[in-house]
Write a structure and sequence with these properties.
Blueprint (H helix, E strand, L loop, with lengths): L6 E4 L13 E8 L3 E7 L5 E8 L3 E3 L15
Antiparallel strand pairs: 1-2, 1-5, 2-3, 3-4
Length: 75
């Protein structure tokens, strides 16, 4: 189960938010079993987006995941 402050990975692209599948975010609020409020930030701590997402749009990170850096459009 995903809880507040867990790091999650996007399972879909969200072009309107400048986010791509695999981007990592932190759960800031759990909406019951229906979804999550997730904050996505740059590596220097600037918020890119805070998005309400359905439970099928994110997944928990695992020990088999690797982080990746990419430029994001204007924040």
């Amino acid at each position: 189960m995903i809880a507040e402050l867990d790091v999650v990975a996007l399972t879909v692209d969200l072009p309107e938010e400048h986010l791509r599948r695999g981007d990592l975010g932190t759960v800031v609020l759990v909406h019951g079993e229906n979804g999550y409020e997730v904050e996505f930030v740059t590596l220097t701590g600037e918020t890119v987006a805070v998005v309400s997402l359905a439970s099928d749009q994110v997944r928990p990170i695992t020990s088999g995941d690797i982080a990746n850096a990419r430029p994001v459009e204007a924040v």
